Amino acid sequence: MEKRQEGGASLSFSWKYGLALGLIIAGPSVSGGQAVIEAEEVVDNPDSSRTFVSPWIVMDPLDRDLRFRIRQGVPGACRLFGMSDYLRGFVVWSKDLRDAVGVNGDGSISDVEVGHYVESMTCISDQPYVPKITVKERKERLDGAVTVTLPLIHSGSATYRVVSGFLAGVCRLLGYNSAVKYSEEWSAATAAGVSLGFDGQIYIEETGTYLTSLECRNVDQGKYTSPGRRQFENRIKETRERL
Prior knowledge:
single chain; mainly beta
């Protein structure tokens, strides 16, 4: 993960006419409208999401004392940072109360009220969102299949083992559409991990023995022609080309 913070300056953006606009000032800051969103720290995660730590809304760039934390509207706050949405389960809320504002979906700011506020949030840019997978070793076979060992799933700032679910979901994250039957191997020990859906999405966290080896391949799935399936297949193809 790469942390972006230079000379104590924070990363900030503003929202104007639906676009992140502005100029660079005082380090990695961007401004250009009445209200500015900023974060004390920005972390780039392996899955291309970004975690914004201590986000603030500065109501007037000329008066930096006039700033508030965010009490609601995480999707809108992510859009102000130039992202498209946020990762559920990766928003940390404060335990204490303070003056804070809400952020509407269009980026406008609502009234100041006392409430719990966002301490950190993880935003995503790609739609549909797909977790990132890495493997310890990858061996291509002459028949087009691949064998991988010790796959890890990266979502936001978290890293997981694969403990259950659809093995085809693991293969889809690798750029293949099918798991070779009976090719999977599991650990003897248990660990915290996740179960994957058929499309590679995480649907539950749990503890169990974890996947240590798997073979994947591509098979003809021409009968699956829905727009959603085609969109996801295109994402699989793009992922495989990047690996």
